[in-house]
Amino acid sequence: MKVIVDSKKGLKTNLKVFIDKKTIDEKMGARFVELSKTIDLKGFRPGKVPIDVLKRQFGKAVYGEVLEKILQETSAKAIEEKKIKVAGQPKLELKSHGEGKDLNYTLEIDELPEVKLSKLENIQYTDYEIKVTDGEIKKRIDDIAKNQDNFKDKNVEEVASNGDLVVFDYEATIENKNFEGGQGKNTQIVLGKDLFIKGFDKQLLGVKKNQLKEVEATLPENYPKKELVNKKAIFKCKILNIKKSEPVKIDNEFAKNLGAKDLNDLKELVKKQIQNQYKMSFNEISKEKILDQLEKLHNIEIPDNLLNQELSIITQNLKKEDIEKNKKNNEKIAKKRIKLGLLLNELGEKNNLKVEEKELRDEIQKQVQSMPGQHKQVLEYYQKNPSAAASLRGSIYEEKILNLIKNQSKKVKKEIASDEAEKILKAEHEKHHQHNHEHSSKSEDKIESKKPKKMLKSAEQKKKIRKK
Q1: Which long-range contacts (CB under 8 A, 24 or more apart) does 436-441 make?
Q2: Which tens digits make up the pLDDT trace of 290-320?
Q3: Burial state string for 310-330 with b = 16 or more CB within 10 A and e = fewer than 16
Q4: By the 8 A CB rule, do 2 and 22 touch?
Q5: How many CB atoms neighbour CB 392 within 10 A?
Q6: Would you state the pLDDT for residue 467?
Q7: Residue 456 pLDDT > 90, yes or no?
Q8: Where does CATH 3.30.70.1050 sit in the chain?
Q9: Architecture in CATH of 120-128+262-467
Q10: How many CA within 13 A on the CB side of residue 451?
Q11: Is domain 151-245 classified as CATH 2.60.120.200?
């Protein structure tokens, strides 16, 4: 194999690759030997088909197969030999080929630009710490208490009213006939929430314990038996109990039921929860500001094919007129995404950042814990979807790079009250919305609001070839 750099201009390199016919003939000969051992042809014993016969019958097919394999192997070697970092898929054009001939082809390659990193000390971000007042903590705990079920039995003579819990058995019929799903034992509904069947609650207002009550209701659209949807059913209900809601007493016992050691511990946990909620929002703001500064600090030439690929992703759901109308802005978004991807990738590689299998497992475990009762489904999802696991790995990798930037950049610590935090978050939201409105059409608005696309890749890129 002989490789010559035919031309080099900016990020575009053209290579000429020559393979002599002897190499091709050897590979074809080896392939025919393989076929002779397995192919079954009429008139010949298995494994005893002469090579000449195979060449006459399968020569063109074998040449095509061998040619494809040679192109894949030699193009990858040519790129490696010339130490080219490929951006996207090279274009391959056959110049001379055929059985019994030398092979001559060209590779048109877009190279990744050289990324020279500026000092990260030039980046600055604000690390907000939120002061949470006792009043805010009390309000949050009161809200939690309001959502806790605390029902006590009503006296036998007391009637059911809105907010009460009614416990009953029922048997339902449609046109005096029983139907599947028309029986229920110890059914519980809170009057006024209308969560059982629409309009059912109202008909239980005023009932007493041990009373028999007949309720008429229309079976809903989501009823399992489709043939019964929108049918009127008569429910004969036996009222077993009526309970009224009482305020939850906020004390140490209440705190323990929520997993805290005592009430003071619960207050501390709630304080941290409020602070963490704000922290997540401010982390996103910090991330955007850091990435904006990182992008402005660097000048990087963008390969044409990466730009075209990114533009096709951005505009894939847009109409032709919208694409043309917003061409400049789409290009700006695409360049920023590619640029940030290259910068983050360079930072990751230069600092030898990697995502260990344990880190990936730990992140999946966090998701499992945040979705109680769905342990098996979450694990199966990642096992059956390698792309989902790869995406999660990319998110962890990006987070590591952002933490690296934060550790080397200038951090300004600032303590603020929650009301000030709300003002900052509101202002950031409005600014972001205004920016989108000024630079985007309605359809493109969705594009601009996305975070910079993750373009982090492993150092060893797959070298795929696209033929002209």
Answers
A1: 439/329, 440/326, 440/329, 441/322, 441/325, 441/326
A2: 999 999 999 999 988 899 889 999 898 888 8
A3: bbeebbeebeeebbeebeebb
A4: no
A5: 17
A6: 47
A7: no
A8: 2-110
A9: Orthogonal Bundle (1.10)
A10: 13
A11: no
